[in-house]
Write a sequence for this structure.
């Protein structure tokens, strides 16, 4: 079990300015003009620490939320939104201790904020990883990103054996798995990582799981091995002669009576695509198994292994072959894996214990925007004016155009885009102003206290990804796009509405930036009532060459990607409220969107259902 804390330097909502403006209207001010946001140093700092760890999912954990700002009056906190409040106590340091039930195993993010007596609000969060009933004995992320250093990426985060990795000639590749993150890079010649022999005992039952990206097939490639005085007791990787994933174990280190146990994949490895691999050696039934993306593809019977207690555990090499590409989230278990380990479970599933579980294949959250209290009166030079902050670890914000507004409608507090400035005071100079309303993603390339925002993508569109959003549209305005990601030509994807066939929700995936629409993939679902809120999820599953569309937690359609589709990266910003074509912007949204979450990886049916149920309940608790 491990945790990771983070803090956002971006203030979210300048409630003091809003309240002051509203009071001006009440007192008869002729115009409503939002004040400029105060300097960022007025945002109260906030931190959160873990006091007691939960025994497992569905069990309580205790946290302390604190701020060094003496004017802080309350703290807000919650797993998916800061829906709970507690009074701040203390003098120099304001704090509060809270106990809250951990919802599921895997990564749980507690979001917190501190609110001072001027309604300025500072934000932070902490990740708590709650393992399954039998936790991994070793866990290495091999990734660095905001809040996690390169050194931490090589540390064993399981806290069971404490077996850190030592790197030899490793590199670090930018943006290879997630935009804004680094992953360990292996050169195929001399790069590898090693841990103490205690990291893996190959004589007993064990399992190894990892995300892998292979960049060369010109020779055999080894991702995991265990050394011995003779033959490696385990070798797991790619075999060139059969063009398959492979795992093999000898029965002993040397000698004429060595018996080999080998399991092979049925699928052909895809160069450059992140793939989840796992192998399980089970002494109970004497099998060696190989899983690809959670699917059992190879089983070898009558398996027998051995272990050299002095043999080094290695990532990225064997005695004679080397890995070329990247590895991430490598886990070692002293038990076999189950289907639940891979795909997770719903709280309503039998034998779930009443908790949701995310599973090893659950994708990584790379962006979260909740659109609570979002307004843009007019754009200014202030770094946080007209922005919607990202509550993920990456802290990318959405820059919004003039006239966008947040409002509570039909039980959701979302972002509303309608082409007319939201101001309703006839004496205001912007009253009735026709606007082009949308938002686009940016990343901070400056310092936290002195941000410099630069347009930036959020998703790697050449890998699997998922887009989850709530939306509704004015169906009289024709085709409209809720979410897309820009490129030099057309949008790489669109989660959209179109009026065809009485109204349809669409997840549209282009084969390349400039190709014709005839080579575009469409997953569609009926939209008979688009003027009310619906939960929409588009999934591009690159390893299965599929596009999937979910509506209100249910899979609506799965289609194979057009044969012309090849992995390609859309280098532009993620957009809300419109799409892009070579001729210019198109399909402007006239409606609302809420609770936008972007994932690097393919959400499963179980994960989509869980998100839908969580967010459908969550909105009823918002203030």
């Amino acid at each position: 079990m491990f945790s990771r804390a983070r803090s956002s330097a971006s203030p979210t909502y300048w409630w003091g300015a809003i309240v002051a403006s509203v009071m001006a209207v009440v007192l008869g001010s002729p115009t409503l003009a939002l004040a400029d946001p105060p300097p960022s140093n007025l945002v109260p700092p906030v931190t959160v620490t873990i006091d007691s760890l939960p025994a497992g999912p569905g069990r309580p954990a205790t946290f302390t939320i604190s701020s060094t700002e003496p004017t802080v009056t309350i703290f807000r906190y919650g797993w998916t939104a800061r829906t709970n409040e507690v009074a701040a106590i203390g003098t120099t340091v304001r704090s509060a201790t809270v106990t809250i039930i951990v919802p599921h195993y895997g990564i749980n993010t507690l979001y917190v904020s501190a609110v001072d007596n001027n309604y300025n609000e500072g934000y932070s969060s902490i990740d708590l990883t709650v393992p399954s009933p039998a936790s991994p004995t070793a866990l290495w992320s091999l990734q660095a990103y905001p809040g996690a250093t390169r050194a931490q990426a090589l540390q064993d985060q399981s806290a069971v054996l404490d077996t850190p990795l030592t790197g030899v000639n490793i590199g670090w590749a930018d943006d290879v798995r997630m935009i804004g993150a680094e992953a360990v890079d292996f050169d195929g010649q001399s790069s590898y990582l090693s841990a103490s022999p205690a990291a893996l005992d190959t004589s007993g039952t064990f399992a190894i799981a990892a995300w892998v990206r292979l960049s060369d097939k010109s020779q055999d490639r080894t991702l995991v091995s265990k050394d011995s005085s003779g033959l490696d007791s385990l070798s797991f990787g790619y075999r060139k002669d059969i063009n398959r994933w492979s795992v093999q174990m000898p029965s002993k280190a040397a000698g004429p009576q060595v018996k080999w146990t080998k399991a092979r994949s049925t699928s052909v490895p895809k160069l450059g695509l992140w793939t989840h691999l796992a192998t399980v050696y089970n002494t109970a039934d004497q099998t060696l198994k190989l899983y690809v993306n959670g699917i059992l593809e190879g089983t070898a019977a009558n398996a027998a292994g051995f272990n050299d207690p002095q043999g080094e555990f290695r990532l990225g090499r064997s005695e004679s072959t080397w890995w070329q590409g990247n590895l991430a989230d490598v886990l070692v278990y002293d038990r076999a894996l189950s289907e639940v380990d891979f795909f997770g479970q719903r709280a309503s599933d039998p034998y779930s214990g009443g908790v949701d579980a995310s599973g090893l294949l659950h994708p990584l959250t790379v962006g979260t925007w909740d659109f609570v209290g979002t307004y843009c009166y007019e754009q200014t030079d202030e770094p946080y004016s007209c922005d919607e902050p990202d509550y993920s670890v990456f802290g990318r914000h959405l820059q919004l155009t003039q006239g966008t507004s947040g409002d509570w409608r039909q039980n959701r507090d979302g972002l509303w885009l309608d082409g007319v400035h939201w101001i309703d005071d006839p004496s205001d100079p912007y009253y009735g102003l026709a606007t082009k309303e949308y938002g686009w993603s940016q990343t901070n390339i400056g310092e936290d206290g002195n941000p410099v925002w630069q347009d930036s993508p959020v998703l790697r569109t050449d890998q699997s990804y998922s887009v989850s959003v709530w939306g509704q549209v004015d169906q009289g305005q024709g085709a409209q796009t809720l979410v897309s990601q820009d490129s030099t030509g057309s949008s790489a994807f669109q989660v959209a509405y179109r009026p065809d066939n009485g109204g349809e929700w669409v997840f549209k995936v282009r084969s390349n930036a400039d190709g014709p629409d005839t080579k575009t993939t469409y997953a569609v679902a009926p939209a008979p009532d688009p003027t009310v809120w619906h939960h929409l999820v588009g999934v591009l599953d690159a390893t299965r060459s599929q596009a999937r569309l979910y509506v209100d937690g249910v899979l609506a359609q799965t289609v194979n990607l057009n044969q012309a589709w090849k992995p390609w990266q859309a280098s532009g910003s993620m957009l809300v409220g419109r799409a892009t074509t070579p001729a210019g912007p198109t399909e402007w949204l006239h409606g609302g969107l809420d609770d936008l979450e972007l994932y690097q990886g393919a959400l499963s049916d179980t994960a989509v259902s869980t998100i839908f149920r969580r967010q459908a309940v969550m909105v009823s608790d918002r203030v």
Notes: The chain is about 5% helix and 40% strand. Residues 55 and 398 are 38 Å apart (CA to CA). Confidence is low (pLDDT under 50) at residues 1-6, 8-40.
